[in-house]
Amino acid sequence: MTVTHLPEGISGIHVLPAGHHDGPWDSIIVPPGTKERLLGTAVLVLRHGRALRSLSGPPHGLVVLSGPPGTGKTTLCQGLAQAAATAVAGRGATTLAEVDPHAFPSEMLGESQRAVRRLFTETLPELAARRPHTVVIVDEVEALAVRRATASFETNPVDVHRATDAVLAGLDALRAACPHVLLLATTNFTAAVDEAFLSRADLVLELGLPGEEVLARIIGSSLTELATLWPAVRPLAEDGVLHAELAGRCADFDGRRARKVILAAVARCPVLAEDPTRLTAEDLFAAVDEAAGFAAPVGAR
Questions:
Q1: Any residues with CB less than 8 A from the CB of 246 and at least 6 apart, and which?
Q2: pTM higher than 0.90 for the full model?
Q3: N or C: which end of the chain has fewer CB atoms below 10 A?
Q4: Domain positions in the chain
Q5: Helix (H) or strand (E) holding 10
Q6: What is the C-alpha separation between 99 and 109, in angstroms, rounded?
């Protein structure tokens, strides 16, 4: 379910678990242990957040995923929200709220921190009161928690400092009032995020570019998905040696780029696009080489 009338700064509200949110958690391929660590942190906060606030160092319910574009941070957060909601579903549903960080900056001195303060002290607690568990996703969190030490004087450093201060104070207030809330934040630039915000995170996970083994799994997964549409492609989807060879030519590809290169192979010429069952290993190698800049695109098959 998606709410049509949304509070300020909120771009989406959903109820989990929901069937149409299945997919991202299983489809995204990351190094071994990554999903287990994320899900363990999420379940601990959602299930035991209230009890843990009695500790001298309770969790903030904050997880930060950092890494270059295309490494699956947002997809992983979306999948984690569904997986965690499924894990705790026996105790009730989960509210998923998506925050648009770009809705807050303002040229008016003081307006940014007031809007941020409302988000953490009014909007999110009100959403958290609806159900036993709440997950909040904030993409590009550097737009909210700007690193104060490097605040640009081209904008308004005073407002930047106050807005970041409001985020930190709001995060502390949210933890105290709603210890069952899990906040998932992503950033492409860890160096742009304020150190005090990062220090509050229960888990900061760096997602680097995938190695050859992970790339081979991504390529295999993409071909398997293609084979569900065109079963004639299945031999390519089941050829592990082919996947490894293609991965070897995909150095410095991110996961998104590796998936897109499979579609690029199908789109190399109109004949193949019309009939993807004609896809061959040679087409895949050519597409990878073109994407890597090793060969010029062909005009016809």
A1: 215, 216, 219, 284, 285, 288
A2: no
A3: N
A4: 10-206, 212-291
A5: strand 10-16
A6: 22
